[in-house]
């Protein structure tokens, strides 16, 4: 069964600190992995997208890594801000024979406090 | 340029009724995907359409159906509504079918079934 598991489920950090969120997946065959940020009640917003051949991608204070061999990814947030408080969702996609399947993780709920 | 738009924003239905949700993709985007997000969980993939054809399907019952129109807008239909169908329904558009294309999410339609 294709699964995407994220840890921790929730996290509270002080403003200015760094944090790392984890994503493990069993989805196969693998096409790409995305990290999204989702504010409560709103649609997800893309942070990074990585294909099989990429092992790191940055977007401002967000840096994602991918190890396709161990099927693990991480999202590192540097110098956190209050506006980083949101759910962060890892999404793995496959495209086989022109047919796509998308599997979302359950997300990590991040709270940044002053 | 307008982003992905969805209508209505909120909807209340009773069990057994049917509902139609609408999505307009970003101009020039040919692919539309639908997701269901139950409160506190990550989105679940329902369908993807590309050039008016279904190109991806998640594990949802036949009560769920969708279609894409020549102008690339899309409708999601749910028949015989159940209480468990209460969720945020998200639509996302992308330029093309390949999973490396960026997906842009709309604000969602909040469906409540009573």
Concise summary:
The complex is a heterodimer of chains A (114) and B (114). The mean pLDDT of chain A is 91. With 114 residues, chain A is mainly β.
Written account of the structure:
The complex is a heterodimer of chains A (114) and B (114). Chain A has 114 residues and is an all-beta fold. Chain A is 0% helix and 61% strand. Chain A is globular, with a radius of gyration of 14 Å. The termini of chain A are far apart. The mean pLDDT of chain A is 91. Chain B is built from no helices and eleven strands. In chain B, strands 2, 4, 5, 6, 9, 10 and 11 form a seven-stranded mixed β-sheet that branches. In chain B, strand 5 (44-50) and strand 6 (53-57) form a beta hairpin.
Q: How large is the radius of gyration of chain A?
A: 14 Å
Quote the distance from N terminus to C terminus of chain A: 41 Å
Q: Number of DSSP strands of chain A?
A: 11
Return the string of H and E elements of chain B. EEEEEEEEEEE
The mean pLDDT of chain B is 92
Structural class given helices, strands, pairing of chain A? mainly beta
Count of helical segments of chain B?
0
Largest sheet of chain B: 7 strands, mixed
Roughly how many Å apart are the termini of chain B? Answer: 37 Å
Beta content of chain B: over 45%
Structural class call of chain B reads: mainly beta
- Would you identify the regions of chain B where 5 or more consecutive residues have pLDDT less than 50? none
Sheet-strand content of chain A, in percent, reads: over 45%
- The helix content of chain A is under 10%
